[in-house]
Design brief:
The complex is a heterodimer of chains A (283) and B (241). Chain A has 283 residues and is an alpha+beta fold. Chain A is built from 8 helices and 15 strands. Chain B is an alpha+beta fold and 241 residues long. The chains are: A alpha+beta (283), B alpha+beta (241).
């Protein structure tokens, strides 16, 4: 009646003390469900990059008492807009969230597996991983994707979390081979990240409150969309706005669509008056 | 070599059942009941780390009594089954009924095939969108499965606890009152009068209104406050009557 449930017993792996890692467990019982699992040969030579669209710009910034993660909504495939209302942010548990840039199809799988991985550990062990542990786990998973990355399916996640020990928000970035880097204050990944980072750099203050931090994130995504064709700006006509997740000591919270719409509309109106956006002070 | 004595199958089963019942009766009971905001799970448990109650999936909780290593195995199996299924299909495709079924089949197989039956009794509870959609299943050591309505007690003297609980149970009671009913029933388990403190209780809820994962443990100050609140309101009710 259930797969893997024969002769009235689950296979022994289900019952053994075994591992608390979901990925390792899945490799044992159902390896075909793992992302990047190949049954055939490595495939024909040549670029396979056209097979899945690219997810674009993500920004993250910390503020006193928390951390914020925001992403635009666009996915592109070459010069074509493949999707204009994509959700690239994943709540991975109560105190962490992940966003993906790069090959969308692979990234979504990775984020989904990571989500189950954290929850699985928490349920089996009765406590969640430390934020460092979560960051290292993600590094291993990105490294596991190296084979795919070599074929052009590069996925670059950005992890944010609230560290319950130090009571502050933290940001971790990754490279395609699984290198893990802790970022100070703010960071951005994806095709528009250069512009977004430059924008945040000029607007960031150490004493930002949550609403101002959201405002900074929206300004930076606007700047990314301004100069990078693969990043989508706020779409006032279709009412498609960036997504913003905030993590504080109260846990993870997605900022309501109305609130983001209001702030994003203000940003757009501000740009109508001054297309280059807010000016940083020179003295 | 001597021939083993012939033992009638009926006798074999009866011996196994008696063995399992005795084993389960050595431990304390647990109760699972509905309250106005979802489902409440309470176990009489001294340990803060060796849990009798835990989360299986988003809307599904688990409570067990009996031998710890045996029900811990079942818990691991349930979490793994649920996570694989939820990952393979969708989070909504994991149901309490499936889990109750695999538990029943596993326990049934162990009971009929192994020399030693497992000395456990478990509850799988799933909170629905409305109280009418809540599901509570009790699975016994021989793999029998019962779809319970409103409340259930498991453990050696579950019938006694159950009858105690019946008098005070109300599906729309606030959390503190439901907790009070549960602790009262557990405290009078063997016809004895005990006081159950926060330190002796393991308490968790499946909260209907909660987002994502509905399971939440209640401990520490919050639990003590709820116990006090429950006592006050019951004392008030009795004074009114």
């Amino acid at each position: 009646m259930f797969e893997g449930f024969e002769g009235g017993r689950m296979s022994a792996a289900f019952m053994s003390a075994g591992t608390s890692s979901f990925t390792e467990f899945l490799r044992e019982v159902k390896p075909e469900l793992l992302p990047g699992h190949h049954t055939g040969s490595a495939g024909a030579p040549g670029s396979a990059e056209h097979l899945t669209p690219d997810a674009t710009t993500i920004v993250a910034l910390t503020f006193p008492g928390g951390v914020l993660l925001a992403g635009d909504r666009r996915a592109t495939q070459g010069n074509v807009i493949a999707n204009r209302d994509m959700d690239k942010l994943y709540r991975t548990d109560e105190f962490s969230a992940v966003a993906i840039a790069g090959s969308a199809g692979i990234g979504i799988e990775l984020a989904k597996l990571y989500q189950v991985e954290l929850e699985h550990y928490e349920k089996l062990e009765g406590r969640s991983l430390s934020l460092e542990g979560k960051a290292n786990k993600l590094a291993q998973m990105v490294r596991g994707n190296l084979g795919m990355a070599m074929q052009g399916f590069v996925v670059v996640p950005l992890l944010v979390g609230f560290d319950e020990n130090t009571r502050q928000g933290r940001v971790f970035s990754y490279d395609a081979v699984g290198g893990r880097y802790e970022e100070q204050r703010y960071y951005s990944v994806g095709s528009g990240s250069v512009y977004a980072k430059g924008s945040i750099k000029k607007l960031y203050r150490d004493d930002l409150d949550e609403t101002t931090a959201i405002r900074v994130a929206l300004e930076s995504l606007y700047d990314a969309a301004d100069d990078d064709s693969a990043t989508g700006g706020p779409d006032l006509h279709r009412r498609i706005f960036p997504l913003v997740d905030v993590i504080t000591e109260d846990g993870h919270r997605r900022i309501g669509a109305d609130e983001v719409a209001r702030l994003a509309t203000e940003v757009v109106e501000g740009r109508a008056a001054d297309p280059d956006g807010p000016k940083a002070r020179l003295s | 070599m001597s021939m083993p004595f012939y033992v009638a199958p009926e006798q074999q089963m009866k011996d196994k059942a008696d063995y399992a019942r005795k084993g389960i009766a050595r431990g304390r009971s647990a109760v699972v009941l509905q309250y106005e905001g979802g489902i409440l799970l309470v176990a009489d448990n001294m340990s803060r780390t060796l849990h009798k109650i835990s989360e299986l999936y988003d809307r599904i909780g688990f409570a067990a009594v009996g031998r710890y290593p045996e029900f811990e195995n079942l818990r691991l199996m349930g979490v793994r089954f649920a996570d694989v299924r939820g990952y393979q299909f969708d989070r909504r495709d994991v149901s309490g009924r499936q889990l109750a079924n695999i538990y029943a089949q596993t326990l049934g197989t162990v009971f009929s095939e192994s020399l030693k039956p497992w000395e456990v009794e478990i509850v799988v509870a799933e909170v629905g969108d409305t109280a009418a959609e809540d599901e509570i299943y009790r699975i016994t050591f021989d793999g029998s499965i019962v779809d319970e309505q409103g409340f259930v007690a498991v453990g050696g003297s579950s019938e006694h606890v159950s009858s105690q609980l019946k008098d005070r149970f109300a599906a729309d009671a606030p959390l503190s009152a439901a907790l009070n009913a549960a602790t009262h029933a557990l405290a009078h388990e063997n016809g004895e009068e005990r006081e159950l403190e926060a330190g002796n209780l393991e308490v968790a809820v499946l909260e209907r209104s909660r987002e994502h994962r509905k399971f939440r443990r209640i401990h520490g100050d919050r639990l003590s406050a709820l116990i006090e609140e429950g006592k006050r309101s019951t004392a008030g009710d009795e004074a009114d009557e």
